[in-house]
Write a structure and sequence with these properties.
13% strand, single chain, binds flavin-adenine dinucleotide, alpha+beta, 9 strands, globular
């Protein structure tokens, strides 16, 4: 599969599977298994995995385009896909000692039969996912883990969780290790319902690990090397992916608003809203300018990830921070322009508006990113 084929498959799934049910799934808070099956059958679950395990060996450019395409139809599904790709990428980067156990799982992912996700955030350290409060304890060659994971996208739906915990002998707050915990492991339970403001169809429930036994073969990083894996493997793709979700939401908001301005009419004036009100046209134009600005920013980040350089980490941080704000601003404008029709939920605009608020909350949050950027500009250590 090449870039164009992957994006065209994403378009096909978005229009055939996602778009028709996004509204109902949002209302019911229903996870779309059909979407996951379609993504699996199309080969998109193994998008970034190496050819050797049956993956497509594609890179951030395709990843960003696929996510934005899915998000334009249903941001909940796009976020499920994003967290899966991160789980798969973390497994693919696993230490040599895990290769024997992880390779068959990577093959299952490429064959479309395994969905994964990340379980980093904890009740104790909240959005500071880099500092788990849970600790793995030695258990023969492996470990036992008890943890309260506060939000896990695809909770109860994924086949595996990539879990962080402080390393057994870790001294500092970031001395974590990453483990692969199969969903059927004894002691793993979904600890509550998911009834969020937005991304309501992505099952982001809390998950509890109660004395879960994890063999050393499923230890993904060396002891204490979870933090560098979070920074080097997960963060760049997560920030690119959430920015792409934001872009999909902005594009859907522009399209939905334009459609409303063309179809809603002032019958007494004999004109559509768009024909009648220059102020609405100007606000729509601003939405389009902002969406295209975000798109250019994402292209720039992709370029930095393809050709890493000194400014790459800065771009990684900036892009998610900017994308969260743009998505909120563009979808807020859409709410205002579409007025009562949006407010009374006659359009999909209010779903986009609610979904757009998740990006800035998801860690690293927009505030934390600004804190990191400011510190790095001043030469102050980040942690
Ligand atoms: C839809 C959704 C899906 C999610 N899926 C997952 C998942 O799959 N896996 C996972 O591990 N996590 C997931 N999360 C969790 C997410 O990444 C965050 O950890 C969580 O949303 C943060 O929650 P909080 O508001 O309690 O954080 P808090 O830390 O309580 O933050 C509260 C406020 O303080 C600000 N703040 C915190 N620290 C700083 C600082 N140092 N400087 C400045 N401001 C600061 C924050 O920006 C925020 O405004 C998900 C969250 C959402 C909303």
């Amino acid at each position: 599969m090449n870039h164009d084929a992957a994006v065209s498959k994403a378009h096909e799934i978005a229009s055939r599977v996602l778009a028709p049910s996004a509204g109902q799934n949002d209302k019911a808070g229903r996870f779309s298994n059909e979407a996951v099956v379609s993504l699996g059958e199309s080969g998109l679950l193994g998008l970034l995995l190496p050819l050797g395990v049956g993956g497509s060996g594609l890179g951030p450019r395709t990843f960003a385009a696929v996510i934005a395409t899915l998000a334009e139809a249903d941001a909940s599904v796009a976020m499920v896909y994003l967290m899966h790709i991160l789980g798969a990428a973390t497994m693919a980067a696993a230490r040599p000692g895990a290769a024997q156990a992880v390779t068959p799982i990577l093959k299952e992912i490429s064959a479309g039969r395994h969905l994964s996700t990340l379980a980093f955030s904890e009740a104790g350290s909240r959005s500071h996912f880099w500092a788990p409060t849970s600790r793995a304890h030695r258990n023969g060659n492996g470990v036992r883990i008890s943890a309260k994971k506060s939000w896990v996208t695809s909770a109860g739906q994924a086949q595996s969780y990539v879990v962080s915990a402080l390393a057994p002998e870790g001294k500092g707050p970031t001395d974590s290790t990453l483990y692969l915990v199969p969903a059927q492991t004894r002691g793993v339970t979904v600890a509550g319902p998911w009834d969020g403001l937005g991304l309501r169809a992505n099952a982001s429930s809390p998950v509890t690990l109660d004395d879960c036994v994890v063999p050393s073969s499923l230890q993904l990083t060396e002891d204490g090397a979870g933090f560098p894996a979070m920074l080097n493997v997960v963060l760049p793709l997560f920030n690119l992916g959430t920015a792409s979700v934001a872009l999909g939401l902005c594009r859907a908001a522009v399209a939905g608003t334009a459609s409303h301005l063309k179809s809603a009419r002032f019958e007494h004036l004999g004109q559509s809203l768009g024909e009648s009100l220059p102020t609405l046209r100007a606000q729509l134009a601003t939405m389009q300018i902002d969406a295209d600005g975000l798109s250019a920013r994402i292209d720039d980040l992709v370029d930095h990830l393809e050709k890493p350089r000194e400014t790459t980490m800065l771009r990684v941080l900036e892009t998610k921070a900017a994308a969260g704000d743009v998505a909120i601003s563009v979808t807020s404008a859409a709410m205002r322009i579409c007025g009562g029709a949006a407010f009374s939920k006659h359009l999909n605009i209010e779903r986009l508006f609610r979904d757009a608020h998740a990006g800035a909350v998801m860690a690293p949050t927009g505030d934390v990113l600004r804190e990191f950027i400011g510190k790095s500009l001043l030469g102050i250590p980040l942690f």
